[in-house]
Amino acid sequence: MSIDLVAKLRNMLQVMAFCLAIASIQYFFIPDRGYGPPLVYSLAIGMVTWAFIDLGRHLLPSSEETGWPKGFPGVAIVIVGIVIGFFAGNFIGDVLCLHFHLYQGPPPTDLAAETRSSVMITVLATIACSYYFYSAGRSSYLERKMGEAQRHANEARLKLLETQLEPHMLFNTLANLRVLIAIDPARAQQMLDHMIAYLRATLDASRTTTHSLQAEFDRLHDYLELMSIRMGPRLAYELALPPELAARPVPTLLLQPIVENSIKHGLEPQVQGGRIEVRARSEDAQLVLEISDSGAGAGAGAPAPNGGGFGLTQVRQRLAALYGEAARYEFESAPGTGARTRITLPLAAT
């Protein structure tokens, strides 16, 4: 039996506030007897009744939707709780009021009428509180279900985006391999070996929407090795991942589309090629990922010409679906000075 102590404390404070309100109403109509007795009796009856009913909810099989037993058992614990709470609470109230000399004014002239009034207040208050907690439990359940449905929808959307992105990466790599086979079979063989390693990692990653940052950097390494074989000395790169961030989960294929775009539109147009740096760091409780290049100035995060930029669009959409406004995607570039893309994610969510 798992009990949320914080929720129980919150419920207890709500019951005490309700008892305080009842005592205040009683004192308003019968002020000559003082505020002490109605407060003591209200708290004693209310707390005993609540404790019995709440304990019964956990001992009996309860509905996942409301947290209350279904059918007759749910009604029975309320009825028994009213009876036990009334008699036990009155006994506790009698003892406390006598011990602390709280009684003031003349004794009640009609004890039967006072008892009926007390019973009526106990019944109505218990039913009202029980219905309140029943409704609160149902509302909490519906909120959880809505949250789960939203998470499932986001996961489905992410998987759809990934299935669109994977062929995009594969086709580009195969096109590069086809060209290389014709001009340098040995290097094409090396490229094929790296591609096999890359595809194996891609297949593993396709089974989930996230993987470790280390796995993301490993895939970047395989991809950049593929490109290094094709571009030769025109491509230099550096991957910097602090060990303490290696296990942090990130969306699969988060950085590779940016690196690919940086090569295609930043480095390849230059005769001398260029350099790409990918770095990860923590900053103000956030995970910061930076991709910079020394390309032509339309590299890492710029939209590709002629309606391209598919991979970058997918990156932005996946970040929005997974993190909402908590994630930031920033791009800056100037002609001839390269480009820099900065992705910021909350560390608490990674």
Automatic annotation (TrEMBL):
- Does the record's keyword annotation contain DNA damage? no
EC class, as a word, reads transferase
Q: Which InterPro entries does the record associate with it?
A: Bact_2-comp_sensor_kinase, HATPase_C_sf, HATPase_dom, His_kinase_dom, Sig_transdc_His_kin-like_C, Sig_transdc_His_kin_internal
- What transmembrane ranges does the database entry give? 12-29, 35-53, 74-103, 115-134
Q: Which UniProt keywords apply?
A: Kinase, Membrane, Transferase, Transmembrane, Transmembrane helix
Q: Specify the domain of life of the species encoding this protein.
A: Bacteria
Catalysis: reaction(s): ATP + protein L-histidine = ADP + protein N-phospho-L-histidine
Transmembrane helix found in the keyword field: yes
Might you give the EC number(s) for this enzyme? 2.7.13.3
Q: Which Pfam families match?
A: HATPase_c, His_kinase
Q: Name one GO cellular component term.
A: membrane
Recorded GO molecular functions are:
phosphorelay sensor kinase activity
Q: Where is the Histidine kinase domain?
A: 254-349
Protein name in UniProt: histidine kinase
Which species does this protein come from?
Ramlibacter agri
